[in-house]
Amino acid sequence: MNLNEIPKTVALATSECPPECRNNILKVALSINQSPTQDRLKVIEKISNDFNLSKEKIIEILGIYLAIIRTFVESTDKEFNAKLMELGFSNEFVEELPLINNRTKVTDTILSSRRGEFNKLVSLKWRVDISLTNSALVKKMPTSVILCLQLKNGRKYTINLNIKTFHKLRFNVALIMKEINQLNK
Fold this sequence. Notes:
about 180 residues
């Protein structure tokens, strides 16, 4: 689920869910990002019984939190807050999210479980996605760089980077290469 696909009524319903329930669902969402293969049905049933909500409602909110976490990892704090407010989440809901104050911990936790997957890289391809039609479309569809990774286990990942993020990546890779060359001398 992508955050852009969430109707404002669902965002409002998620905001109105009790804070303790939201915290429990957020913990489940974070654990799913760490270990996606583990079964969480018993935890969902417990939350459903504790807060008298249907399993379907819990799963719907869980999907929203997974999309929120994905957006959080892919954006800056300012972009993240603006996106949630634009989608209809209340200011109180955004302020209560423990993600922003713990950005480093959250991203390290999510990425640490997946670091082992990326040490088996088979190929990396990239391309620049440019719209050449007219200037009005360029504003709506900005230029981006698409990275395609293929791992030894057959998994393929496609990462869409905006130009600013691509330049940060390029700069940091160049910096690392420079430091490696200095260590080798």
